Amino acid sequence: MAEYIKSKKYTGVIYNLLKNKDRSYYIFYKVNGKTYRVHIGKKSEGITEAYCHQKRNDAINKLKFGDTDSIIKTKVKVDTFDVITQRYLEYFQIHNRDSLNHESRYRNHIQPFIGDKSVTDITVADLENIQREKLKKLSPQTVNHIIQLIGTIFNYNILHKYIKVENPVQRTKLLKVNNERQRYLETDEIETLFDVVKNDKQLLLFTKLALHTGARLHTLCNIKKKDINLEKQTVFLQDYKNGTFYTSFLSGDIIKLLKTRLRQIKSQDFILLFGTDPNNIDTYISKKLRPILNNLFNTELERNDRQNRVVIHSLRHTFASHLAINGTPIYTIQKLMNHKDINMTLRYAKLAPDSGKEFIENLYV
């Protein structure tokens, strides 16, 4: 049986301590000689002793005026994870054209597990269960993306004060992943790729931009005409991974391609939107380019060979790798890749021509 503790400050306010150290608050008062106890809510839901005290006073005042029907009899409503996800997705759709990936990931991988649960009832154990189940068919990296999306949804709603709970993702350990892709395209492979996509204006422009800027897929798909300055040969980019903006540079035949493309569109138009759905261009390009990369470079590789398979992100890796091969200073590569952490950039240092080979060759000469 629960043991109730009286508030030291407020009359008629009690609470009991839960196993997770949360507090469940109640108020009690008398009506016609009978004592009533009403559950108000949990501390994790934002309920305080002062709030309970105010609710008790409201109830007593209503009793004095004979309004017994409106005395608080229901506990504070708590949102389900479905509710806070919908709130986040509505926000995300305003600021990001490609929201379908988030919606699909939630619907297929998250909603069946915690969609109908109160946000106050979602625990680390729930998230670990999602990890176990999803690892049966998905890669550790993909499972981590699922958990991180849950954390993002919680953080958005906490930041905007829609809910007052602890984000359980903060106490959930992500899976270990070997993220370092070894594979990048050699110059002859780049030419082969260009030759294959040359008759598809959308894919040709995308691959040229990817290999000239090193930007991620979602960043490239959100470039508008207004972001490009042909006179200065620059492009203004938004890094959706870390929420920053940066400038990259354009050169060579990409300038000619862009001049042709920019004459066809208006300032606010997306340069990679060739009649496709503006809300789904990332997915559209992925579906078109992935089989081409597989046919050209992945025919003899296992599907789970992350280090050696060529994927769309390999174009970004190729950009950085060739910068290093050409002797670009590591801090310049960091700037061009928009890496927050220099350690992300240092993995390319081994490709630099001054990586140490010549010093070893002349060590004892």
TrEMBL record:
<dbReference type="InterPro" id="IPR013762">
    <property type="entry name" value="Integrase-like_cat_sf"/>
</dbReference>
<dbReference type="InterPro" id="IPR002104">
    <property type="entry name" value="Integrase_catalytic"/>
</dbReference>
<dbReference type="InterPro" id="IPR050090">
    <property type="entry name" value="Tyrosine_recombinase_XerCD"/>
</dbReference>
<feature type="domain" description="Tyr recombinase">
    <location>
        <begin position="180"/>
        <end position="361"/>
    </location>
</feature>
<keyword id="KW-0238">DNA-binding</keyword>
<comment type="similarity">
    <text>Belongs to the 'phage' integrase family.</text>
</comment>
<dbReference type="GO" id="GO:0006310">
    <property type="term" value="P:DNA recombination"/>
</dbReference>
<dbReference type="Pfam" id="PF22022">
    <property type="entry name" value="Phage_int_M"/>
</dbReference>
<dbReference type="InterPro" id="IPR010998">
    <property type="entry name" value="Integrase_recombinase_N"/>
</dbReference>
<dbReference type="GO" id="GO:0003677">
    <property type="term" value="F:DNA binding"/>
</dbReference>
<protein>
    <submittedName>
        <fullName>Site-specific recombinase, phage integrase family</fullName>
    </submittedName>
</protein>
<keyword id="KW-0233">DNA recombination</keyword>
<dbReference type="InterPro" id="IPR044068">
    <property type="entry name" value="CB"/>
</dbReference>
<dbReference type="InterPro" id="IPR011010">
    <property type="entry name" value="DNA_brk_join_enz"/>
</dbReference>
<dbReference type="Pfam" id="PF00589">
    <property type="entry name" value="Phage_integrase"/>
</dbReference>
<feature type="domain" description="Core-binding (CB)">
    <location>
        <begin position="79"/>
        <end position="158"/>
    </location>
</feature>
<dbReference type="GO" id="GO:0015074">
    <property type="term" value="P:DNA integration"/>
</dbReference>
<keyword id="KW-0229">DNA integration</keyword>
<dbReference type="InterPro" id="IPR053876">
    <property type="entry name" value="Phage_int_M"/>
</dbReference>
